[in-house]
Amino acid sequence: MSGPLEAVVIVAAIGYLLLRRLAGQPAQVKQMLVLPGVLTLIGLSDVKNVLHSPVALGFLVVTALLSAGIGALRGATIRLFDRDGVVYMRYTALTVVLLVVNVAVKFGANLLLGAIDPGQVAVLGNTLMLTLGLSMLLEGAVTMAKALRSGHRILWDKNRDGTTRTAPWVDDLQRRMATTRNHRR
């Protein structure tokens, strides 16, 4: 996918996700972990060009670590609540601010790299999918950890027709965590 087209697709996807999560939606493992994991893997395939430039690689490492950290912070700010025995999640104002900061860090790093070494900006620009995927993956992992402790059902996914599926391994993990928590008391 080309740089400008990729950016438009990513911005549209973020906008859609943002609207849904501001309104509140069921916490779904597939959205929290699987899709960000796929984005991260796709982003890793674009890293090969960065490996040839120590400066661009340094910028990638720093922006990836910052994105992961900001993603974890975002996960901590997400509000979880129960609706009919299912964990729901909703972005807060702080979550949105952290999302904007995350995007600003990535584009700011690109501008800074452009000032230092203009030839490397295009190379680093191709890593947007990787840093975005990492950020969303850490957000999802923190949110998932909070949801597991809630004691309410966590969905695998929700189909367009409204039907839902759970994942037996998630239910089992949640039961084991509750058992461990009860034994500690």
Short description:
The protein has 185 residues and is mainly alpha-helical. It is 71% helix and 10% strand.
Structure explained in plain terms:
This protein is mainly alpha-helical. It has one domain (3-184). Helix content is 71%, strand content 10%. The protein is built from 7 helices and 5 strands. Strands 1-3-2 form a 3-stranded antiparallel beta sheet. A two-stranded antiparallel ribbon has the order 4-5. α2 runs antiparallel to α6, α3 packs antiparallel against α4 (93-116) and α3 packs parallel to α6 (128-150). The mean pLDDT is 86.
Search tags:
single chain, 185 residues, mainly alpha, three-stranded antiparallel beta sheet, two-stranded antiparallel ribbon, 7 helices, 5 strands, DUF1453 domain-containing protein, transmembrane helix, transmembrane, membrane
The largest sheet, given as strand count, sense and whether it forms a barrel, is: 3 strands, antiparallel
List the uncertain runs: none
In whole angstroms, the N-to-C terminal distance is 53 Å
Biggest sheet strand order reads: 1-3-2
**What is the count of DSSP helices, taking H or I runs of 4+ residues?**
7
- Average pLDDT rating: 86
Helix-strand sequence: HEHHEEHHHEEH
Number-wise, the strands total 5
Number of discrete domains? 1
What helical percentage do the residues reach?
over 70%
Work out the strand percent: 5-15%
